[in-house]
Specification:
about 375 residues; Outer Surface Protein A, domain 3; 12 helices; 14 strands; elongated; binds zinc ion
């Protein structure tokens, strides 16, 4: 009876006459949404009980108050509390050995969000606090990805980049401002994220990835065995997607791709080694130019990049990452990728099927 519960704060409440059941003359309706809507049969005590269930009083204290005010037994009140708990309407008091009180206050709205689909949202927050996500590239996509993961309280972020901040980055790279131009992206990103969420551990690795071996060289700097997920958002050099694909696949780390092509935002596929297709399943289209003029033109290539598309792509990939880290339902980005078309405001899924002859994940490698 010392436990404290509170009615989930997102419930809006209406009180109707329940003429069918004389014992319970009230029909208390909570929530409007299809997922949230609940109805509870109640008597004169029910509304008072719901009003007292604000998380500040123990069940014993509430029973004491209501039994005196309404002249009913504590056992009857407790039965109603039990029914409310069973209906998923109440949240237990947030207790955590991992998270501080300040963190619990900080994540309050996220905890409320998790409570829509889980009985003890604090476990979700703790899972995120224990998770590690590495982000390859903290530019247009990666800076938003890191920011969103920091919002959610993912406990350890590893950022990998070697670029310096340019004025043309400021339209879309959320972690940088005009006074940062010329500075190292890693240095500024790490400081900004640590300042934004001091409860997470942000590690920056300033390293130019120019070949597969460069990824291997990062190994001594961080414990790759402890990485739960990698998000690949670097766009140069062109082969970096395949290096990361091979690197993470060999180490059995799940990973996702996020980027854009002209007016399309592209999210995925998410690769879970030994389960889904990998990037190598599709034929690689890498441009190697021997002709000097062609190479010179190719070297000038600059992809168009639009801030809001960077933002939406990053949100999609982070949402899927969070669901994976929390062990929720299977991602929609396995064996397919999502595209967002700016002109049509349309989301489509493109198949990215497993190729039985894939040199990396195909049958002969089983
Ligand atoms: Zn494959």
């Amino acid at each position: 009876m010392r436990e404290r519960f509170q009615l989930k704060k997102f419930y809006r409440i209406s009180d109707y006459q329940n003429s069918n059941v004389s014992e319970f003359p009230h029909l208390v309706s909570l929530g409007y949404d299809e997922i949230l809507a609940k109805q509870v049969q109640g008597n004169d005590v029910t509304l008072s009980l719901l009003a007292h269930l604000d998380g500040t009083k123990s069940l014993g204290e509430i029973c004491d108050i209501l039994s005196k005010a309404h002249k009913i037994s504590e056992a009857e009140i407790f039965l109603q509390v039990r029914a409310l708990i069973d209906a998923g309407l109440l949240l237990p008091e947030h207790k955590s050995e991992l998270l501080s009180t300040e963190e619990i206050i900080r994540y309050d709205r996220h905890l409320l969000f998790y409570s829509i689909f889980t009985e003890n949202p604090i476990w979700h927050q703790e899972k995120l606090a224990k998770a590690t996500v590495a982000i390859l590239g903290v530019g247009g996509i990666g800076s938003w990805v890191a920011y969103n993961l920091a919002c959610c309280g993912v406990g350890r972020l590893i950022l990998i980049d070697s670029d310096f901040i340019e004025t043309s980055n400021l339209t879309r790279q959320i972690l940088y401002g005009p006074s940062d131009v010329g500075k190292s992206k890693i240095e500024v990103a790490v400081n900004r994220l640590r300042n934004f969420n001091p409860f997470i551990n942000v590690i920056g690795i300033e390293k130019k990835i120019q070949n597969y071996g460069d990824l291997d060289e990062i190994l001594p700097e961080i414990d790759f065995a402890g990485i739960d997920f990698i998000i690949q958002s670097a766009d140069k050099p062109e082969k970096i997607h395949f290096w990361l694909d091979e690197f993470a696949y060999r180490r059995k780390i799940s990973y996702a791709f996020a980027g854009y092509i002209e007016i399309l935002g592209v999210v995925g596929p998410i690769v879970i080694p030994d389960k889904t297709s990998c990037l190598m399943c599709a034929e690689a289209k890498i441009h190697d130019f021997e002709n000097a003029d062609l190479k010179a033109i190719q070297d000038r290539f600059q992809a168009p990049s639009f801030g809001p598309i960077n933002s939406i792509v990053s949100s999609f990939v982070v949402l899927e990452t969070i669901k994976l880290l929390l062990g929720m339902e299977e991602s929609q980005l396995l064996n397919q990728r999502l595209t967002y078309n700016f002109l049509k405001n349309q989301i489509d899924y493109e198949p990215y099927p497993k190729n039985p002859n894939c040199t990396q994940c195909g049958r002969k490698n089983d």
